[in-house]
Design brief:
By secondary structure, chain A is of the alpha/beta class. Chain A is built from 38 helices and 38 strands. Chain A has 6 domains: 108 residues, 3-Layer(aba) Sandwich (Rossmann fold); 163 residues, 2-Layer Sandwich (D-amino Acid Aminotransferase, Chain A, domain 1), CATH 3.30.470.20; 65 residues, 2-Layer Sandwich (Dna Ligase, domain 1); 161 residues, Orthogonal Bundle (Carbamoyl Phosphate Synthetase, Chain A, domain 4), CATH 1.10.1030.10; 137 residues, Rossmann fold (3-Layer(aba) Sandwich), CATH 3.40.50.20; 104 residues. Helix content of chain A is 38%, strand content 19%. In chain A, strands 27, 28, 29, 30, 31, 32, 33 and 34 form an 8-stranded antiparallel β-sheet that branches. Chain A has a 7-stranded antiparallel β-sheet with strand order 14-13-10-11-12-15-16, sandwiched between helices. In chain A, strands 17-18-21-20-19-22 form a 6-stranded mixed β-sheet, with helices on both faces. Chain A is globular, with a radius of gyration of 28 Å. Chain B is globular. Chain B starts with a strand and ends with a helix. Chain B contains 9 helices and 17 strands. In chain B, the strands form 2 sheets. Chain B has a 10-stranded mixed β-sheet with strand order 8-10-9-11-12-17-16-15-13-14, with helices on both faces. Chain B has a 7-stranded mixed barrel with strand order 1-2-6-5-4-3-7. Classes of the chains: A alpha/beta (1048), B alpha/beta (358). Chain A: Composed of two chains; the small (or glutamine) chain promotes the hydrolysis of glutamine to ammonia, which is used by the large (or ammonia) chain to synthesize carbamoyl phosphate. Tetramer of heterodimers (alpha,beta)4. Chain A: This is Carbamoyl phosphate synthase large chain.
Chain lengths: 1048, 358
C-alpha cells in the first residue's frame, strides 16, 4: 500500500539534549526520519532543543523549533502549525512520554493530530509493566517473577516471598536510571526508595534476578500487513546484570544454536505482532546458558540505541524504514537502500563480526562509583567490524582512545591478582582489560568464567589474544617472520603495539609490514553476505583476503570523524563533520569518511560517498588514505581526536589541508603560544610552567594566587584545578594524583568569558557572533550557560576581540575554522585559548545566525577565498535581533559519586538552547521543563554557612524575595530537600558537607546552582510563565527583515 | 596443512585443511549458505548431497555439534569451506567440535578461506564445480556426476513413526527430520516410504495425506517417477516441499530450470498472496519451477520470492494440493511458515470428513 495521502504535515519530536541513556543515536534516527518523510513530500515540523544535532538543520525540516520538550510547549506548536500527524517513536523515551501525555490530556484529539506508526495502545503496553506482563501472560511468553509496586511495604513482602537477588526497575526512566540489583534487604529497601523517587509515576517493577543468563536482543520491524522481520540479533558479552548500554555487545549472537536463535526470534515476532507496533522495536531476552529456558526482559516500542547499532552493524537503516512504515508503506514495497537490488522485507545476513564497546566516563570521574549495573553510565560507544572475533575486539579497544596500549591497561599491572578478581566479579569499565591481565598471569578460563559468568566462547577469544600477545613479545622486529606477522595483524595487533613491544618506531613496523606485503583489504557491508550485488560503499578493513574497493577517478577528500561521544567531545563534532561532507559534495569531490561511532549521522552510509568503519588511529587512518589514494585530508571537524593524528600523518607525507602540526603546536604548547601572543601584542594571562612539585609552589607564588593549574594538552578541562591559596595547593598536591608534570600555572582572572567561532582564508575572517558566558571565567565553557549575541560588551571590547582574531589568523596564515576564547578583566581583553578546529559552539552559532560555518570552512580549506564563498564584507556580523541562550545539561544523577559543582573540568553531557526576544523569556524556556514539573515549589535554599554576606549575596536574596520566593537558610537540609516547596538549591561552598548536600539534592532531583550568575539567570526567568514559540526559520526571517529595514 | 580450493572458472584459494582429505582430493558443486546459525542442520540436510558448502558467516562451529539438531543420521555434504572454526564447541549441549564431527565422517574441512571472495565468484558466474586438493595445480575437472544423488540419501525400507489420528505417507527423496517432526508434533501417524514406492503400495497403506519431501539434485532425474507421483497427488491431499514441489510441477507438465546460484539461507522473503504478507523463509534449492510453464497447468501461484519474483509455492484450485519451494519446517532458519503444516492437516481432515459423509 502506498503512503498515506490524507497527511500534509508531520510533527516529529526529537529527544532533546544529550544525557546518559539518550544520546546521538536519536539524532541519527531523527535525521533519517526527517529525510525519509521529507522525500515523500510532507511538510516536516521538528521540535528539539538540542542545537548540536544534524536533524535540527533547517534543510532537514521545514520548521525547526528549539523549544522546550514539554506538553505545554508542544501544544503551542500544534496550535500554531496544525500538523496532521505526529511521529513520536524517534525521540527516545522523551518522545514516547510526550506522545503518551499528549494523548492522555486529549491534546492530540483537540488538534486532530493522528499519531503515526506505533499506536498509543502499543506504547502503553510496552511501557506500563502491568499491562505488559498481562499481555505476555496471554501470549505464554515467560517473564521473571515480578511485581509492580508503588510503596516499600509491598516490595518487602515480595522480597520475602521470592528471595534475593532482586532487580529494581523504576517505570518511565531513561537508561534504567534509578534501578539496580539488590542482594540483601538493606540494599533492596534503599534501591526501592530511590527507584520510586525517580519514577515519574512512582512505580517500580521488582523482579527475580536472572543475572548470569545470556542477554540477547532482537531488533524487530513490523508493517501494517503484519509482515515482521528481525534486522539483527545481538549477544551481550556481559551476561544479564550489566545494562546493555554498558555491556560489550557482539552481533550476531555467537553462542546460540539455530534452535535457540529462532526460538527467541519467533518469540520476538510474536510479541511485536501482538503489540501491534508499526515500525521498529527492541526486544531483550535472558537465556539460561544451560537450558532452553528464557525470559523476556524488556521491550522498547521505538527505535533505540540498539537499533542505531543494529543499523550500522547490518547496513539496514531501521529508522529510515520505520518512518516509511509509519506513513503506510509496507516492507515488501520498499527497496533495500544498501543493495538497491532487493527489498526491505528481508533479514540481513552478516559475513563479519561486530563488536560494540561502551565509552564510560570514569577517566574524567575517577572518584565516581565505576561499578556497572542496571543503571547505564556510558556516554557513548564504539563499534568495530572484522572477519574474526579477535580483531573486532581489538579494533573496538583501539577506538576507545583510552589509556590502554593495545590490550594492556597499565594501571591494572599494579593490582594484585586478588584485586583483579574482585574487579571482574563486580564488573566495572576495566573488566575486559582485567580479564586479559588475569590471563596474562596464567589464570584459567574456568576461574574467570566462575567469577564473571562470561561465556567460554568469548573468554577463549580473549585467551587467544593473550597467547598471541606473548608470541609478539617473544620475537622482535628483526626476527619476526611473515607468517607470524600475518597472524598478529589478522588478529588485530596494531603497529603501535608491536612497535611498543619491539622497541622500534611505529613507522618502522609499518615499513616492515608493507615490505612483507601485509596490507589490509577492504570488505563491504552489504546486508546480504555478498549474495547480491550492492551499490553502497560501506567498508571495513581486514588483514586477510580480497580487496573489494571500487575504483573512482574523482578527487577524494577524507574527513576524519571524532570517535565515541565522551564528556568534552560530543555530537557537535559529528554535526561539523557531516556539514563538511555536504560542502565537499557541492564542490564535486568524492567524500570519504572514517569514524567508529555507531550512534552518529556521520556513520550513516548515505552521508559520505564512502564510509569506513575503522578505529581512528594513525595506522588505520593512513591505511585508508593509502588504499583510497586520498588527495586531501580534513581534520578540523573531528575534535581533538583528529587533531591528535596530524603530526603522524604529516610525517607520513599526507596532504592535510588547513592546519599543520606546527600551527597546532604553537597553539597548544604554552610557551610557544604566549610567545606568539606577545609578538602580536595580544594580552595573555601571566603563566609559568612547573616541572616538579618543588617548582610548583615557587612558581605559583610568582604568578600569584588565585591560580589555574592545567596539564599542557587537555580535552574538556581534564585535570584542571583552580587554587586560591598556598594552603589549598598543599591540600591538592597531597590528595590528588592527577597533577602530571610539567604542569601549567596560570593567573586565574575571574573575569567575563567570551568566545568566537570564525572562518578564515588565511587573510580575512568572518565572525558570525560573539558568545558570552553567563558565569565568570573558571567554569568550563562546556558547563557554562552562554548568551549570544554577547550582551554586555563595550564596542571597544568587541573591536579588540575581532582584532586579536584577525591578527592570529594572519600570523598563522590560518585557513578553515577556529575557536578563540577570551577573558575580559578590568577592561582588558585577554586571549585564553585558540583551538584550530571546530568547537562545541559551531552548530549553535551556525543555526542561530544562519551562517553555515562548517560548510564555509570546508570551501576555504579547499583553497577558496572568503569573498568567493560569502557575500558578507564585514568581519563581525551585526547582532541578531533575538536572544539565544545555551544551557548545559548534566547526567550527574546517573553517576553516583559525582558532585554537581561546576568548575574548570567539564561535567555536562549535553546542551540545549532557547531563543526568545528577551533574556527573561529565554531563561524561562530553558528552565521550563524543570519549573513546570515542580508545580507550586517556591523555596530556594542558600548554603550560606561561613559565606561572606557580600553585596552580591544580599542582592540575590532581595531578588529572590522580589520574585515572591522564599529564602531558606536555617532548616536542616535533609528535611528541606524532601519538602514539596523545595525549588532550588544554591550552593557556593566547596567543602565536604556542601558536596554531600549537593548529592542529596541531586538524588531528590532538586536543581542546584553553584555559581551566583546561574542562579541570577534562573531567577530572571522564573516569573515569565507565558512564552511564545517560533521556528528557527521564522527567527531567521525576522533577522533578514530587520537587516532590510536598516538598509532602507 | 595447506590445501587449495580450485573453482572451475580457474580461480584458486589457498586455505588450511583441518581434517584428512580422502583420496587426496575431493570435488563437487560449490554452493553457499548465508544463514548465520544452523550449520549442523545444513551439514545433515540430505539435499546438500554431493555439494561442497561454503558458509558465508565467518565463524562456524562456535556451539559445536550436539545430539539433537541433526536433520538426518549423517552429514551429506562433500566438503565444508569456512573462514574460521574453533577447536571446541561452546555450548552446554555440544558433544563434538565441528572438526571432530567432520573428521569422523571423513568430510574435509577447509578453513582460512576468503569465503566472501568465493561467494562473489559464484554470484557473478553461477554455481560451478570445485575441487579441494593439496596442490596449487588445478588439474582436470571431472565432469559433473550423472548419478542420482537421491538413491544415496533416501531410505530403502518403509519406516513408521507415531500413532496419531491422521496418517500421512512421507515420500522420501532425502527428507529432513524436521519435516517428520512437524507432522508428529501435530499428532500424525507417519509412514516414510522410499521415493520409488509404487502407487499400489501406497494405496495399501491407506494414507489420509501425502507429503513429498525435499531432496538433492535436479528434479528431472526423477522423470520415471512422475506418473506415480501424479497418481498419488491426484488421489490424496498433498503437501510438497522443495524438490517435492518441483516434482508436482513436473508431474503436471510444467518445467523446472536451474537457478544461477540457488537460494540457500535463512532470510528469503516470500510473499503469500493468500495471507497478503511477506514471510521470512528457510531455503535450500538450486532448481526452480519455471513460472511461464505453469500457465499450461491448473496451478495457481500463491507464494512468490520478493527478491527475484521466482515461484515459491502454488496450489491446485480444485484438488487439495499445496506445494512450497521453501522449507516450512525451518531448521535451520525461521519458523514463520510452520502454519503450512496446519493448513495441510486441516485439508486432510476436511477431505476425510467429506469421505466419511460422502
Amino acid at each position: 500500500m502506498p503512503k498515506d495521502q490524507t497527511l500534509q504535515s508531520i510533527l516529529i519530536i526529537g529527544s532533546g539534549p544529550i544525557v546518559i541513556g539518550q544520546a546521538a543515536e536519536f539524532d541519527y534516527s531523527g535525521t533519517q526520519a526527517c529525510l525519509a518523510l521529507k522525500e515523500e513530500g510532507y511538510r516536516i515540523i521538528l521540535v528539539n532543543n538540542n542545537p548540536a544535532t544534524i536533524m535540527t538543520d533547517e534543510v532537514h525540516a521545514d520548521a525547526v523549533y528549539f523549544e522546550p520538550l514539554t506538553v505545554e510547549s508542544l501544544e503551542k506548536i500544534m496550535a500554531k502549525e496544525r500538523p496532521d500527524g505526529l511521529l513520536a517513536t524517534f525521540g527516545g523515551q522523551t518522545g514516547l512520554n510526550l506522545a503518551f501525555q499528549l494523548h492522555e490530556k486529549g491534546i492530540l484529539k483537540k488538534y486532530k493530530v493522528k499519531l503515526l506508526g506505533t499506536p498509543i495502545e502499543a506504547i502503553k503496553k510496552g511501557e506500563d509493566r502491568e499491562a505488559f506482563r498481562q499481555l505476555m501472560y496471554e501470549l505464554g511468553e515467560p517473564v521473571p517473577e515480578s511485581e509492580i509496586i508503588t510503596n516499600v511495604e509491598d516490595a518487602i513482602a515480595f522480597a520475602e516471598k521470592v528471595g534475593f537477588p532482586i532487580i529494581i526497575r523504576p517505570a518511565y526512566t531513561l537508561g534504567g536510571s534509578g534501578g539496580g540489583i539488590a542482594a540483601s534487604m538493606e540494599e533492596f529497601i534503599f534501591l526501592v526508595e530511590k527507584g520510586l523517587a525517580e519514577s515519574p509515576i512512582t512505580q517500580c517493577l521488582i523482579e527475580r534476578s536472572v543475572a548470569g543468563y545470556k542477554e540477547i536482543e532482537y531488533e524487530v520491524m513490523r508493517d501494517h500487513t503484519d509482515t515482521c522481520i528481525t534486522v539483527c540479533n545481538m549477544e551481550n558479552v556481559d551476561p544479564v546484570g550489566v545494562h546493555t548500554g554498558d555491556s560489550i555487545v557482539v552481533a550476531p549472537s555467537q553462542t546460540l544454536t539455530d534452535e535457540e536463535y529462532h526460538m527467541l526470534r519467533s518469540a520476538a515476532v510474536k510479541i511485536i505482532s501482538a503489540l501491534g507496533i508499526i515500525g521498529g522495536c527492541n526486544i531483550q531476552f535472558a537465556l539460561d546458558p544451560f537450558s532452553k529456558n528464557y525470559y523476556l526482559i524488556e521491550v522498547n516500542p521505538r527505535v533505540s540505541r540498539s537499533s542505531a547499532l543494529a543499523s550500522k552493524a547490518t547496513g539496514y537503516p531501521i529508522a529510515r524504514i520505520a518512518a516509511k512504515l509509519a506513513v503506510g508503506y509496507t516492507l515488501a514495497e520498499l527497496l533495500n537502500p544498501v543493495t538497491k537490488n532487493t527489498y526491505a522485507s528481508f533479514e540481513p545476513a552478516l559475513d563479519y563480526v561486530v563488536v560494540k564497546f561502551p565509552r564510560l566516563p570514569f577517566d574524567k570521574f575517577p572518584y565516581a562509583n565505576r561499578q556497572l549495573g542496571t543503571q547505564m553510565k556510558a556516554t557513548g560507544e564504539v563499534m568495530a567490524i572484522d572477519r574474526n572475533m579477535e580483531r573486532a575486539f581489538q579494533k573496538a579497544v583501539h577506538s576507545l582512545e583510552g589509556e590502554n596500549i593495545g590490550l594492556l591497561l597499565p594501571s591494572l599491572q599494579k593490582m594484585t591478582t586478588e584485586e583483579l578478581k574482585q574487579l571482574i566479579t563486580k564488573a566495572d569499565d576495566r573488566r575486559f582489560f582485567a580479564i586479559l591481565e588475569l590471563f596474562r598471569r596464567g589464570e584459567s578460563i574456568e576461574t574467570v568464567h566462575q567469577l564473571t559468568k562470561i561465556d567460554h566462547f568469548f573468554l577463549n577469544s580473549f585467551q587467544q589474544l593473550i597467547t598471541l600477545e606473548k608470541k609478539a613479545m617473544e620475537t622482535n622486529m628483526q626476527n619476526v617472520d611473515a607468517n607470524t606477522l600475518q597472524i598478529l595483524k589478522e588478529k588485530g595487533f596494531s603497529d603501535f603495539f608491536l612497535a611498543n613491544v619491539w622497541d622500534v618506531s611505529e613507522s618502522e613496523v609499518r615499513e616492515k609490514r608493507k615490505s612483507l606485503g601485509i596490507v589490509p583489504s577492504y570488505k563491504m557491508v552489504d546486508t546480504c553476505a555478498a549474495e547480491f550485488h550492492s551499490e553502497t560503499d560501506y567498508y571495513y578493513s581486514s588483514y586477510f583476503g580480497e580487496n573489494e574497493l571500487k575504483e573512482s577517478d574523482k578527487q577524494k577528500v577524507l574527513i576524519i570523524g571524532s570517535g565515541p561521544i565522551r564528556i568534552g567531545q560530543g555530537i557537535e563534532f559529528d554535526y561539523s563533520s557531516v556539514h563538511s561532507v555536504y560542502a565537499l559534495q557541492q564542490e564535486g569531490y568524492e567524500t570519504v569518511l572514517i569514524n567508529n561511532n555507531p550512534e552518529t549521522v556521520s556513520t550513516d552510509f548515505a552521508v559520505a560517498n564512502r564510509l569506513y568503519f575503522e578505529p581512528l588511529t594513525f595506522e588505520d587512518v593512513l591505511n585508508v588514505i593509502e588504499a583510497e589514494q586520498i588527495d586531501k585530508v580534513i581534520v578540523q571537524f573531528g575534535g581533538q581526536t583528529a587533531i591528535n593524528l596530524v603530526k603522524g600523518l604529516e610525517e607520513a607525507g599526507v596532504n592535510i589541508v588547513g592546519v599543520s602540526h606546527d600551527v597546532i603546536d604553537q597553539l597548544e604548547d604554552r610557551d610557544r603560544f604566549y610567545q606568539l601572543l606577545e609578538e602580536l601584542n595580544i594580552p595573555h594571562v601571566s603563566g609559568l610552567i612547573a616541572d616538579d612539585e618543588g617548582q610548583l609552589f615557587e612558581k605559583a607564588k610568582e604568578v600569584g594566587y588565585p591560580i589555574l593549574l592545567r596539564p599542557s594538552y587537555v580535552i574538556g578541562g581534564k585535570g584542571m584545578f583552580i587554587v586560591k591559596s598556598e594552603e589549598q595547593l598543599q591540600i591538592l598536591v597531597k590528595e590528588s594524583s592527577s597533577i602530571t608534570y610539567p604542569v601549567l600555572i596560570d593567573a586565574y582572572l575571574q573575569g567575563k568569558e567570551t568566545e568566537v567561532d570564525l572562518v578564515a582564508d588565511g587573510e580575512n575572517i568572518l565572525i558570525p557572533t560573539i558568545v558570552e558566558h553567563v558565569e565568570k571565567a573558571g567554569v568550563h565553557s562546556g558547563d557554562s550557560y552562554a548568551i549570544l549575541p554577547a550582551v554586555s560588551l563595550t564596542e571597544y571590547e568587541k573591536e579588540q576581540i575581532v582584532t586579536y582574531a584577525r591578527k592570529i589568523v594572519r600570523k598563522l596564515r590560518f585557513r578553515g575554522i577556529m575557536n578563540i576564547q577570551y577573558v575580559i578583566h578590568n577592561n582588558i581583553v585577554y586571549v585564553l585559548e585558540v583551538n584550530p578546529r571546530a568547537s562545541r559552539t559551531v552548530p549553535i552559532v551556525s543555526k542561530t545566525t544562519g551562517v553555515p560555518l562548517a560548510q564555509i570552512a570546508t570551501k576555504l580549506l579547499l583553497g577558496k577565498c572568503l569573498e568567493d564563498v560569502v557575500e558578507i564584507k564585514v568581519e563581525l556580523l551585526d547582532d541578531v535581533p533575538y536572544v539565544v541562550l545555551k544551557y548545559p545539561v548534566f547526567s550527574t544523577h546517573k553517576l553516583p559519586g559525582v558532585d554537581s559543582l561546576v568548575g574548570p573540568e567539564m561535567k555536562s553531557t549535553g546542551e540545549g538552547i532557547s531563543i526568545a526576544n528577551t533574556l527573561e523569556e529565554a531563561a524561562a524556556k530553558a528552565f521550563h521543563p524543570y519549573v513546570s514539573r515542580k508545580g507550586e515549589a517556591n523555596e530556594i535554599y542558600l548554603d550560606m554557612d561561613g559565606l561572606e554576606e557580600t553585596e552580591e549575596i544580599n542582592q540575590l536574596k532581595n531578588v529572590i524575595e522580589e520574585k515572591q520566593l522564599t529564602v531558606v537558610t536555617e532548616m536542616p537540609f535533609e528535611e528541606w530537600v524532601k519538602r514539596k516547596e523545595a525549588l532550588a538549591f544554591f550552593s557556593l561552598k566547596k567543602d565536604e558537607q556542601s558536596s554531600t548536600w549537593r548529592k542529596l539534592a541531586l538524588s531528590q532531583q532538586i536543581l542546584t546552582f553553584t555559581e551566583l550568575e546561574t542562579c541570577q539567570l534562573f531567577l530572571k526567568g522564573i516569573h515569565c510563565k507565558e512564552f511564545s514559540v517560533s521556528s528557527i526559520q521564522q527567527w531567521l526571517l525576522h533577522k533578514q527583515q530587520t537587516e532590510k529595514a536598516v538598509i532602507l | 596443512m595447506k590445501a587449495y580450493l580450485h573453482l572451475a572458472n580457474g580461480k584458486m584459494f589457498e586455505g588450511k585443511l583441518e581434517t584428512e582429505l580422502p583420496n587426496g582430493e575431493v570435488s563437487g558443486e560449490v554452493v553457499f549458505f548465508t544463514g548465520m546459525t544452523g550449520y549442523q542442520e545444513v551439514l545433515t540436510d540430505p539435499s546438500y548431497k554431493n555439494q561442497m558448502i561454503v558458509f558465508t558467516y565467518p565463524l562456524i562451529g562456535n556451539y559445536g555439534i550436539n545430539a539433537t539438531d541433526f536433520e538426518s543420521k549423517k552429514p551429506h555434504v562433500q566438503a565444508v569451506i569456512v573462514y574460521e572454526t574453533r577447536d571446541k564447541g561452546y555450548h552446554y549441549q555440544s558433544q563434538y567440535s565441528l572438526r571432530e564431527y567432520l573428521q569422523a565422517w571423513n568430510i574435509p574441512l577447509l578453513t582460512h578461506i576468503d569465503t566472501r571472495a568465493v561467494v562473489k565468484q559464484i554470484r557473478t558466474e553461477g554455481v560451478m564445480q570445485g575441487k579441494i586438493s593439496l596442490t596449487s595445480e588445478c588439474g582436470k575437472f571431472v565432469k559433473e556426476q550423472q548419478e542420482q544423488p537421491i538413491q544415496k540419501v533416501a531410505i530403502s525400507q518403509i519406516e513408521t513413526y507415531g500413532d496419531g489420528s491422521e496418517h500421512i505417507v512421507l515420500v522420501d527423496f532425502g527428507y529432513k527430520k524436521s519435516i517428520l517432526q512437524s507432522l508428529l508434533e501435530r499428532e500424525c501417524k507417519v509412514t516414510v516410504v522410499p521415493y520409488n514406492t509404487s502407487f499400489e503400495t501406497i494405496q495399501a497403506l491407506e494414507p489420509d495425506g501425502i507429503l513429498l519431501s525435499n531432496g538433492p539434485g535436479d528434479p528431472k532425474q526423477l522423470m520415471p517417477q512422475l506418473s506415480t507421483i501424479r497418481k498419488m497427488i491426484d488421489h490424496y491431499p498433498t503437501l510438497a516441499i522443495c524438490l517435492g514441489h518441483q516434482l508436482v510441477a513436473l508431474a503436471y507438465g510444467a518445467d523446472t530450470e536451474k537457478l544461477r546460484f540457488g537460494h540457500r539461507g535463512a532470510n528469503q522473503p516470500v510473499y503469500d498472496s493468500v495471507k497478503k504478507k511477506v514471510f521470512m523463509t528457510s531455503q535450500n534449492h538450486g532448481y526452480v519451477v519455471n513460472k511461464e510453464s505453469l500457465a499450461h497447468t491448473p496451478f495457481v501461484i500463491r507464494f512468490t520470492n520478493v527478491n527475484d519474483q521466482s515461484v515459491e509455492g502454488m496450489f491446485h484450485p480444485t484438488k487439495p494440493i499445496l506445494s512450497v519451494q521453501y522449507h516450512p519446517e525451518a531448521h535451520p532458519g525461521p519458523s514463520d511458515t510452520t502454519s503450512i503444516f496446519d493448513e495441510f492437516l486441516q485439508t486432510v481432515k476436511n477431505v476425510r470428513r467429506e469421505k466419511v459423509y460422502a
